[in-house]
Amino acid sequence: MQRVCFLLKVREDRIDEYRERHAAVWPEMLEALSATGWHNYSLFLRDDGLLVGYLETEDFAAAQAAMEATDVNARWQADMAPFFESLDGARPDEAMKPLTEVFHLS
Questions:
Q1: Cα distances (angstroms) measured from residue 71 to each of 29, 77, 85, 86, 88
Q2: Taking a C-beta distance cutoff of 8 angstroms, is the pair 2, 64 a contact?
Q3: Which of 34, 62, 80, 82 is most enclosed, with most CB atoms within 10 A?
């Protein structure tokens, strides 16, 4: 199982709404994530907007590609894009660049 961690930055003026949206993620989005191999997926948000994402998957590139092929993901990414800083024209899911794991305690 591959462990993936990534960072994004939520705009400080949108943090409360971002939290609200993730307290009620669309059921079809949850189903799509599970069906495409995203497991143990968590998001952690600091008060200044730093977002830390963590997930486990057999193959991150394959899981991303499978999500990209879903209609619900396109709608979710379009809906979420205004919440983020520094996407440089990318969708939020395209800006999720995995960090290098330097230690893991089994």
A1: 9, 10, 24, 24, 23
A2: no
A3: 80
Q: Are 1 and 54 in contact (CB under 8 A)?
A: no
22 is catalytic: yes
How far is it, in rounded angstroms, from Cα 98 to Cα 106?
Answer: 20
Query: Rounded CA gap, 74 and 67, in Å?
Result: 9
Candidate list 3, 19, 22, 97, residue with the active-site label: 22
Provide mean pLDDT across the span 27-48: 98
Distance (Å, rounded) from C-alpha 77 to C-alpha 94? Answer: 9
Domains and CATH numbers, the chain: 2-94 (3.30.70.100)
Q: Which residues pair with 53 in a beta bridge?
A: 6, 43
Q: Cα(80)–Cα(97) distance, rounded to whole angstroms?
A: 17
